[in-house]
Amino acid sequence: MKRDFYEVLGVQKGASPDEIKGAYRKLAMKYHPDKNPGDKVAEDKFKEINEAYDVLSDTKKKQTYDSFGHEGISGMGGNGGGGSYQQYGNMGDMGDIFGDIFGDIFGGGGRASGGRRSSQRQQRRGEDLQYELEVSFLDAMNGKEVELKVPRKETCSTCGGSGAKPGTSTKTCPKCKGRGQVSVSQGFFSFAQTCPQCRGEGQIIENPCSTCRGTGTVQTTHTVKVKIPQGVTEGTTLRVSGGGNAGPNGSQSGDLYVIIRLRQQQNFQRKEDDLYTEIKLTYAQAVLGLDYDVPVLEGHVKVKIAPGTQPGTTLRVREQGFPKLGRRARGDLYVKVTVHVPKNLSNEQRKALFEYAKSMGETASDATSTSDSIFKKIFK
Q1: Where would I find the beta strands (DSSP E) of 215-331?
Q2: How far, in Å, CA of 159 to CA of 164, rounded?
Q3: In the 8-state DSSP scheme, what is residue 323?
Q4: Angstrom distance (rounded) from CA 374 to CA 380
Q5: Is the pTM of this model over 0.90?
């Protein structure tokens, strides 16, 4: 089982970005393979702290982790139409971080570390994307597969993602010699920084592809099928692996994160897996009782109203709420009873009410002067 990422870096859950980065820097220096050659334990720890920092240093990914833990980060199923879309930062690229943190250790990016950096840049994944999907109560209750139209970058088919014009190739950057970093000296210290000529890529495109203009990717609209599980709640995040932007040089694509937003349903409120609604009875129905057709999301269900039911009474209807996410059980439906008091009565209705008042010990004059006293007896 994976350790908690905050525990891995030795910081509290509410730690600031600077505290997280400082803790990562300290541990990365301690366990870096170049400082611990042949030490398998140090190598495993180095991988662990990099994975933790990759999540906690990114606002969106950290938010998902704080809400859903490791399950949210690794994906809750390839799943979620109208909605809105947003692009995350590059959540998988650690190249710049390594350059900033370890440049002073490795003497400004020597041949060995520079080679690794260039390799990491070639292999870094594409950017993750975020899509907010509005879902109806009924679809959230029953589950549904939908198709989303997601704007994203895909690998250029003309150059295969290299960014170079077909028939040509990229050239090694003459300034950094392909390392992606250059050494800078300040007094007694020497450290590495991103090469300003190739911007850390280690390669220069002299003849850019006319289709993608040297970027290696083109903007398209991608259709992706997403399955909304039964019982999803507001803010549930579904991960579609590889649904994000294409990576540079044809490398791995990022992921698509679909965030569920629930459309409000008239006459119903949801609290976790339970539903709440309200019905309005007539005075006679409340006094005499009946079997009442209570509306639910999928139609109606009969609920027995006992004689003499008081206003404000809440009735519980078992398993008429939402399905519990990942389980077969369902929540309950809670029905609050209100009573409608008529303002205008016909002479016949008024006469019948007077007779009732008399039978309850009320005089006719009391009944005509205030109807409150009658109803107080009715619902006593």
Answers
A1: 217-228, 237-240, 256-262, 269-271, 274-282, 290-296, 299-305, 314-317
A2: 6
A3: B
A4: 10
A5: no
